[in-house]
Amino acid sequence: MLRSTFLHFEGIGPATEAALWRAGVRDWSEFLDAVPAMGMAGARGTTFVRDVEASERAFAEGDAGWFARRLPAAEHWRMYPSFQSTTAYLDIETTSLSPYEGIVTVVTVHGGGETRTFIAEENLEELPAFLRRFGVLVTFNGRMFDVPFLSVRFPQLQPPPAHIDLRFLFYRLGQAGGLKRIEERLGLGTRAGVEGIRGLDAVRLWEEYRRGSPAALDRLVRYNRADTVNLEPLLRYASSELSRRLLGPRPGPGAAPAH
What we know:
Layout: H1 14-22, H2 28-34, H3 42-61, H4 64-70, E1 87-94, E2 104-111, E3 114-119, H5 127-131, E4 136-139, H6 146-153, E5 162-165, H7 166-172, H8 179-186, H9 199-210, H10 214-229, H11 231-247
Parallel strand pairs: 1-4, 4-5
Antiparallel strand pairs: 1-2, 2-3
Helix pairs in contact: 7-11, 9-10
């Protein structure tokens, strides 16, 4: 989807981008070929050549930050799967709904070929350095919850430059509700061994662990890891569905150029 995106080009808005798609322009190279037919040659055409060259360079260099700065936050999902190798799926557990009243207990990051869990009073301090290796962050309601919590816990935290919040993507797809309800509705992800556990149970499990139950921590970690790993098939579904709805079928030969 990223190579079909033109919103980050100077002077291209949603309406023009949609017109390009309807005319069958689905790639930056096709865009340059279409510029003369669009009546945008001359100085404007030169600007578009510059935009395409810069996009190709950032794409080749794997510079997620370049695209994140130029695309609206709501459109960061378009970077998937082009930056799949530097995508981090993240979920946290806490003892409160407020970052000023509770603490972060468990955090799992899934990406880069591994799944790592960070636990308070054990290795949680290693989380900020680990996150710096990624260019794209994927959460469910992370803009409202996970990132604010982590920012209070780690004031110098630098999250990945691009952030895909699946809660809002699924809302665009008409799928309201929490993470587990959406998983169940779509039949995505697995919760083998942690079926039925919910957010309040995570608080209870942490309290049981603090009272001396290693089994409670093990169950909490497995629950948190399920929340995190399940984000990957959810993003795959949402990205595919949004791309299909936006792009539509490619028009056949003889389609009129965009204006």
